[in-house]
């Protein structure tokens, strides 16, 4: 991953100038024990299943990835010149640890994995641009009984 100081000054200024929304502190909720938790994976790595439509760099949409999708069927259409895909090409679990979560589920370390997992394109959008998709995704996660999300921001 590139360091902010290594970016072109225009890219650095763009990222540093993004408006970050402020959120009220969330109400405290006691977490379930991991062995009773249902997990979903959510990433901004621009991943999708082979054959699905590519991400548009200006899109705040997400793509779904089924729990049984093989790592070799997950592709990346992340479009940043500042992102090195080498590790992903060697092992999808670097950015989307689906195989590790299958192992955790099989061993009983976690309760279960969600039926679907989700990927956004980490693009040059403002956080507010993602709000409609994030609300929709939150509803889908609740509907699937997910109580824990493992985030991999890329």
Give the SSE layout.
Elements lengths: L8 H8 L21 E6 L3 E3 L12 E5 L7 E3 L9 H5 L7 H10 L4 E2 L2 E5 L10 H13 L4 E5 L2
Parallel strand pairs: 1-5, 1-6, 1-7
Antiparallel strand pairs: 2-4, 3-6
Give structural notes:
20% of the residues are buried. The N and C termini lie close together (8 Å). The chain has 4 helices and 7 strands, in the order αββββααββαβ. The chain is an alpha/beta fold. Strands 1, 3, 5, 6 and 7 form a 5-stranded mixed β-sheet that branches.
Structure in a nutshell:
The protein contains 4 helices and 7 strands; from the N terminus they run H-E-E-E-E-H-H-E-E-H-E.
Which short descriptors sum up this protein?
two-stranded antiparallel ribbon, globular, alpha/beta, five-stranded mixed sheet
Q: How far from one another are the termini?
A: 8 Å
Strand segment count: 7
Radius of gyration: 16 Å
What ranges have pLDDT less than 50 throughout 5 or more consecutive residues? none
Output mean pLDDT.
88
Give the count of structural domains.
1
The helix count comes to 4
